[in-house]
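User: Hi! I have a protein structure encoded as tokens and I'd like to know what sequence might fold into it. I'm fairly new to this, so please keep things simple.
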């Protein structure tokens, strides 16, 4: 089979460029722009709108696919027309757009011809780029300025919850959308004093940002939430994100260790933003033991690089604050506030039984007894205890909703979790015997 675009008589790309430019190639000027991950979609949408007003999009087949092609090569080499290469990117949750990764656009700006080359790097260490050629530098610069204006006005990612992912097949960093289930304040069972401190350091900091800025105070802020597993740190993050719908939320985990710098740079572009790093102990361990020693240095440097006026708040969580103390104290001022999440006291455990007991009939249960017997357990443990108790009630024969629990159901559930589950289950659910 011979593809039509591969026939020997297929015109070379430079013929089409010269025809479009009307003999201006000899004195043409070019400008180049490196395409950041947050820019790719809005650039494509802008180019699509220009193309719809009249123009031509063609693909090209360089002789050597392992070298990045530029416009000078297209004008000098016998590069032939080939299919346009595209790739789908997500522009909204579940909504995709085809972006040109290798192609050439022949367009006009205020009556003047210009060419846009889109190229995809072959090396994972390079980034995508576009090159603009026009008959004079003023026209080429004006076209690039139009693109940059569109990028500045972009709202695709602002106010969304996103995370970064490294492309395994190239140098791209892909932005993914993440659905972050909202949490209400009522779902948080924490001492009111802790809630007050948390809300002051995040919501209050944002509410009074302009006043702080005018008085010469920094609006960049770092908060470390620490405590045993299952004490509500992640739930609190969901509450804060839901409380700040105009803020972009950039999620990270300890496993995204190669994308710290890119995430911080994205936060600056999309500010106001929250950068959430869960399990930061997997990232910011001491420099001597870190698998990637430069990583912590990058994290601290990027926080510094945002500047004191950046509208970015870093929210870090850890189950092991002792792993971070020496590393973070070596660079003071980046994390401004640490907030401890304790295991729930008697009052909080009673509130947790009532919260997680919704949909169950607890009238026959001695709640005071179970509050006393669940000292040193996490909220996650109480949630699982009641779920397993409901299963015990169902096996006992209860089938009417709400399921009626008895003390014996909770006793069986507790034994299964603590005795048969062993030390591992206890650790997973935040139980301290």
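Assistant: Happy to help. Inverse folding works backwards from shape to sequence: for each of the 433 positions I chose a residue that suits the local structure. Here it is:
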């Amino acid at each position: 089979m011979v593809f039509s675009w591969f026939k020997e008589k297929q015109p070379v790309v430079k013929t089409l460029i010269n025809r479009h430019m009307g003999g201006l190639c000899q004195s043409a000027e070019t400008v180049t722009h490196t395409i950041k991950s947050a820019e790719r979609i809005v650039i494509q949408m802008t180019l699509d709108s220009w193309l719809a007003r009249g123009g031509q999009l063609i693909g090209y087949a360089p002789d050597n696919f392992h070298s990045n092609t530029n416009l000078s090569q297209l004008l000098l080499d016998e590069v032939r027309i080939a299919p346009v290469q595209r790739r789908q990117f997500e522009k909204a949750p579940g909504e995709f757009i085809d972006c040109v990764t290798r192609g050439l656009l022949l367009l006009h700006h205020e009556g003047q011809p210009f060419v846009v080359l889109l190229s995809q790097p072959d090396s994972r260490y390079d980034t995508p780029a576009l090159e603009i050629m026009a008959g004079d530098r003023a026209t080429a610069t004006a076209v690039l300025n139009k693109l940059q204006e569109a990028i500045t006005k972009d709202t695709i990612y602002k106010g969304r919850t996103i995370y970064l992912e490294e492309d395994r097949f190239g140098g791209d960093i892909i932005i993914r959308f993440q659905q972050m289930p909202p949490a209400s304040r009522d779902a948080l069972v924490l001492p009111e004093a802790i809630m007050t401190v948390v809300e002051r350091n995040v919501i209050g900091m944002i509410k009074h940002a302009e006043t702080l800025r005018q008085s010469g105070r920094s609006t960049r802020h770092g908060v470390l939430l620490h405590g045993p597993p299952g004490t509500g740190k992640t739930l609190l993050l969901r509450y804060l994100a839901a409380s700040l719908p105009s803020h972009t939320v950039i999620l990270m985990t300890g496993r995204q260790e190669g994308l710290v710098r890119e995430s911080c740079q994205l936060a600056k572009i999309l500010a106001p933003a929250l950068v959430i790093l869960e399990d930061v102990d997997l990232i910011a361990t001491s420099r001597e033991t870190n698998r990637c020693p430069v990583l912590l240095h990058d994290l601290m440097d990027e926080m510094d690089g945002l500047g004191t006026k950046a509208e970015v708040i870093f929210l870090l969580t850890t189950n092991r604050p002792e792993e971070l103390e020496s590393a973070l104290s070596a660079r003071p001022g980046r994390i401004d506030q640490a907030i401890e999440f304790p295991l729930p006291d008697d009052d909080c455990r009673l509130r947790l039984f009532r919260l997680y007991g919704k949909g169950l009939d607890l009238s026959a249960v001695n709640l005071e007894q179970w509050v006393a017997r669940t000292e040193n357990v996490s909220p996650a443990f109480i949630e699982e205890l009641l779920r397993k108790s409901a299963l015990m009630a169902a096996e006992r024969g209860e089938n009417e909703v709400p399921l009626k629990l008895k003390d014996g159901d909770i006793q069986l559930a507790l034994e299964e979790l603590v005795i048969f589950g062993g030390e591992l289950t206890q650790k997973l659910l935040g139980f301290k015997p």
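A useful reference point when you look it over: Residues 290-294 have pLDDT under 50 and may be disordered. Feel free to ask if any position seems puzzling.
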